[in-house]
């Protein structure tokens, strides 16, 4: 009788233990497809040199308590021949990225976003960025983060908010430049 009770308790404990273990549902193939269809880097092309483009994300990440504002910046090789500074792109990579800042990587796929041009504007957003880079203050920034580009219809002026992605004194200061729409 003791052996039967012990056997019953053992089976009951195994059953209860099995009930407490959650079985995670396997992700659907659709979820995996959606995950792989997300670009690994989304940002502006801020420089072109030696058949590669510097792509910098306008969205910051918090790395730790010390580095609260970090921007992905990658020198991308294997870019399409027709890319230009100022374009907003989605990039997928082949293999590992170089562990430097900015990093380096080879693109397997690059999608260039549609050109943004307000109806009443003469210039497109890409053209405004290229025009702004003639200014020595913005062109001297080594890793340029373009936060946003806004067109004011009333004054026919574009405003570009930008930062340098390189920390100098522990903080990243935001600047702006205005470009007339002509």
Structure description:
- This protein has 182 residues and is α+β, with helices and mostly antiparallel strands.
- The protein has helices at residues 2-20, 29-37, 125-132, 136-139, and strands at residues 41-49, 52-61, 70-77, 88-94, 103-112, 144-152, 157-164, 174-180.
- It has a five-stranded mixed beta barrel with strand order 1-2-3-5-4. The chain has a three-stranded antiparallel sheet with strand order 6-7-8.
- Strand 1 (41-49) and strand 2 form a beta hairpin.
- The chain is globular, with a radius of gyration of 25 Å.
Shape: globular
- Give the strand order, joined by hyphens, for the main sheet: 1-2-3-5-4
Taking all residues together, what is the mean pLDDT?
Answer: 81
Low-confidence blocks of residues: 1-36
Largest sheet, if any? 5 strands, mixed, barrel
> What structural category do the secondary elements indicate?
alpha+beta
Sketch the topology as an H/E string, one letter per element: HHEEEEEHHEEE
Assembly type: single chain
Measured as a percent range, the helix fraction is 10-25%
Fraction of residues in β-strands: 35-45%
Number of helices: 4
Give me the count of strands.
8
Distance between the termini: 97 Å
What secondary-structure arrangement, pairings included, does this model have?
Layout: H1 2-20, H2 29-37, E1 41-49, E2 52-61, E3 70-77, E4 88-94, E5 103-112, H3 125-132, H4 136-139, E6 144-152, E7 157-164, E8 174-180
Features:
4 helices, alpha+beta, about 20% helix, three-stranded antiparallel sheet, 8 strands, disordered N terminus, five-stranded mixed beta barrel, about 180 residues, single chain
